[in-house]
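Task card 7
Instruction: Convert sequence to structure tokens.
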Amino acid sequence: MMKKIVFLGCGSMGEAILAGLLASGVSPQSVVVTVRRPERATELASRHGVTAMATNEEAGANVQAVEGASVVILAVKPIGIMDMCLEVAQALDSNTVVVSVAAAVSLAQMESALSPGQPAVRSMPNTPLKVGRGVVALSAGSAVKEEHLNAVHEIFNGAGVVLDVPEEAQNAVSAISGSGPAYTFFLAEAMAAAGEAMGLTPEVAQVLARETVAGAGIMLTEPGADAQKLRRAVTSPNGTTEQAIKSFERDNLGEVIKTGAQAAAARAAQITEELNSK
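Output:
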């Protein structure tokens, strides 16, 4: 029997997960998606061949969608996760595993809004899922069995690397891999700006920065790749690269990045507390 997989909400991240799932060989006929706008539902159905419903047209679309589902993916914003859980809780099969892809929403918060014993998984995916190079960290709730976790792994495997982590590590995961693509894009921006400051045209500077960051990222995905070793391999003694690295070290760039990541993790914890107070 074909498993039914449901996406409640399907924005940019949700669609990236959906695309990876379908690319792994899952039949579009086994997937149901709900979104608010009819135009978005039509777009998703046309692009991916899945069943898509708009809650603005069908008020009970979410409840209807989850009936008989094996996995339900909550792909709405953090502030909407609890309400979504409450809305569909009574329609879920007791063996359906509910997966949140929202930052900062704890398992305890999810489980409090679901029926007792409902399997729940907290995940932290990142945007490179869109190009099949994402990383996803999963934390299992108290009612999750091996079969549930395996089913969730299968959903994300098509779009990236999947890791299991304890829930207390999720804020750190969010700060490193969840926010990490933005750090990388910021680096590319800074490199391009530096090139312009040294006389390159904006077009040339942007291409040099973009392709260098992208190419270095691909090198890091090769088997056995190690960032420190790769850096040392292109840092010749008394060479030009060494001077740049020494400048970064004098300015404590590593500490700057660590402080930024800690600030991101702290904000995630703060959001969790804000959601608790609502």
